[in-house]
Amino acid sequence: MTAILQAHALGKRYGQRQALTDCTLELPPGHVIGLVGPNGAGKTTLLQIACGMLAPTTGQIEVLGERPDGATSQLARVGYVAQDTPTYANLSVADHLTLGAKMNPGWDAKLAQARIEQLGLNPKQKAGKLSGGQRAQLALTLAVAKRPELLILDEPVASLDPLARRDFLRHLMESVAEHDTSVILSSHLISDLERVCDYLVVLVSSRVQLAGEVDDLLAQHHRIVCTRRREADLPAGLQLVSAEHTDRQSTFVVRTPSPLPADDWTAEHLELEDLVLTYLERGLDHGAPATTRPRGEAR
């Protein structure tokens, strides 16, 4: 398999509202992929289409090499935890495990029971009486115990306190490491992405602004500060991401796969938060991919 998810010109319309437009994306297997973007970027719609919960209006998508059409065989390969980490308030923890076993042909009862014991959850406790963190952990247990090839998490920790978030992410990484599962994690919390993700996708207005392995992206991006100059005066081959100017000084964020050329500037690598925010701002301002000036263009 060359990709866990491939989308081309994907779109989704609800009546007069366009929730997803022209989304093109290819995600490799074997990663914990962080999906980040502003509210309304189309992240939840994309993930629900990937799970087979929604049908796209336009475009094409394949998940694990198949169209996510809601077929039982496809659903068994994908685990999903929604934003509100849904559980059934009137069902006990044990009832949830029984339901999971009945609905998933590849259900791992030993794994589910071991996780419940590790979390210290009372099997007789009604889900409605659990804390937010406990419900999130129960939802994660249901998702990983079906032994999916792909686990999709749509902001599952956004409403949790810092300790509950840390515990959730720790248990997530334990499950991923043990079962070699690919993960797509949507989150607004960049600190969480830094903790667990090794691949990043920045989505703004349904368009992919940035995608790649985190270490590679951080190595390729630089913030350079120099005496005021035009963007056209930068060395050829630099991909300009953003530019700010004062009367005497210019600050550029640039991307280059090769070492940054020497010049009369100071340069530094970006932290992940600065990298994400730069592309979020750029996407909202311009809505178009960055361009690279061809070699030989006049400085």
TrEMBL record:
SUPFAM superfamilies registered for this protein in UniProt: P-loop containing nucleoside triphosphate hydrolases
MF (Gene Ontology): ATP binding
InterPro entries, sorted: AAA+_ATPase (IPR003593), ABC_transporter-like_ATP-bd (IPR003439), ABC_Transporter_VariousFunc (IPR051782), P-loop_NTPase (IPR027417)
Keywords for this protein: ATP-binding, Nucleotide-binding, Transport
Domain ABC transporter: residue ranges: 5-230
Official protein name in the record: ABC transporter ATP-binding protein
Lineage: Bacteria, Bacillati, Actinomycetota, Actinomycetes, Micromonosporales
